[in-house]
Design brief:
Elements: H1 5-20, E1 26-29, E2 38-44, E3 47-60, E4 65-71, H2 75-79, E5 88-99, H3 100-108, E6 113-119, E7 124-129, H4 130-141, E8 150-156, H5 161-166, H6 170-199, H7 203-206, H8 216-234, H9 237-240, E9 247-250, E10 257-259, H10 260-279, H11 285-313, H12 324-335, E11 347-348
Parallel strand pairs: 3-6, 9-11
Antiparallel strand pairs: 1-2, 2-3, 4-5, 5-8, 6-7, 9-10
């Protein structure tokens, strides 16, 4: 009796996967496989974090590397001719043919399902977030892709576990956090709506009569509501806690920068300080109103900025054919010291 080569390849790919992940991570084989082969849980030191990625593992004897060029126009091409000598950028990728029903299953998942392709010839594993690949690349190349039995996905060569290992698995860890961060974003929107409703903050912009001393209690009430809202935000660990969104924002001016958590803590300290002074009778109603208006602008911008930042920031960890030009521009920014690479954990976007 002969053992099928496919069985050998499957076992070899599993062994390769386990060898390329951190030894402390937990790779659970899904026995009844309907599209997910592994559930991988991230372990930080000795702490089982509960953060997971889900993987569909495929194997091939040897991957062939292809390349495509993409035109670069506008200021990027003219300002950086050394990076784009022919007004184009080249992207290398491997092609993997996948059954359409498996792709459709990935789109239905409530979590980002990652495709892992084990290249047994080079002992390398390439990976790709299937849902993002479909929405950003495949659907643009083939509008009728769902009508085909199979489809070809393109995995950038730099999407390798060897590269991930050198960057402390930054991209895989991002996708492990993505469902929880999306939930935290939704919770933040709810807290923001409650804050605006409870405090009725627009009245200070619309009605000058609220500057009179008789409405001092209302001003103090709204400042306390703002303080409670900030405390609620700081409790959202994946956005503002000890592991915040790795974004930098202006620290009160455009000459200095700080993390989004540091900015929120600074604003909270200001509100708490004004409340203390008001309690000692050292702030009149007009001063409270002016301060409240300023802080309201800041908290609105911080909230809206944070809610808009997730799709932009995740591009640091989303590697596919669609953002080849974007990645080239990121190299330029890295050279100029503006936008660090993902492993550094900080990106500068926007500001207020």
């Amino acid at each position: 009796m002969k053992r099928p080569r496919s069985h050998v390849m499957e076992e070899t790919s599993v062994d390769l996967l386990r060898s390329m992940l951190p030894k402390e991570w937990i790779a659970r084989k899904v026995e009844k496989d309907y599209g997910v082969d592994f559930e991988i849980e991230i372990v930080d030191g000795e702490i089982v974090t509960g953060k997971r990625i889900w993987v569909q593992l495929k194997s091939t004897e040897k991957c062939c590397i292809h390349s495509s060029t993409y035109p670069v126009t506008g200021s990027l091409a003219s300002e950086f001719p050394d990076v784009f000598p022919n007004c184009e950028v080249r992207a290398e990728y491997i092609s993997f043919v996948m059954e359409t029903h498996s792709i459709e299953y990935a789109l239905k998942c409530s979590f980002p399902l990652l495709l892992f392709v084990a290249d047994l010839g080079s002992n390398e594993i390439y990976w790709l977030p299937i849902r993002d690949e479909v929405h950003q690349c495949l659907a643009n190349r083939k509008s009728n892709w769902m009508g085909q039995r199979t489809n070809t996905l393109r995995i950038p060569v730099r999407n390798s576990l060897s590269c991930e290992r050198s960057q402390n698995y930054a991209s895989l860890q991002w996708f492990a956090l993505e469902p929880a961060r999306a939930y935290a974003m939704n919770l933040m929107m709810t807290l923001y709506d409650d804050f605006k409703h409870n405090a009725w903050l627009e009245r200070w912009r619309l009605h000058d009569e609220y500057t009179v001393e008789g409405h001092r209690d209302m001003l103090l009430f709204d400042l306390k509501q703002m303080l409670e809202y900030m405390d609620a935000l700081l409790s959202l660990e994946l956005l503002f806690g000890s592991n915040p969104l790795p974004i930098s924002v202006p620290a009160g001016s455009f000459k200095s920068w700080c993390s989004i958590r540091e900015r929120l803590l600074s604003m909270r300290m200001q509100v708490a300080g004004v409340l203390d002074l008001a309690g000692m009778g050292k702030k009149d109603s007009l001063e409270l109103k002016i301060f409240l208006e300023l802080m309201l602008d800041s908290i609105n911008r911080l909230t809206e900025f944070t809610l808009c930042s997730l799709p932009r920031f995740r591009c640091n960890f989303l590697h596919n054919e669609a953002n080849a030009v974007w990645h080239a521009s990121k190299i330029i920014h890295q050279r100029d010291g503006i936008l660090p690479f993902p492993q550094s954990g900080v990106g500068i976007v926007g500001g207020f």
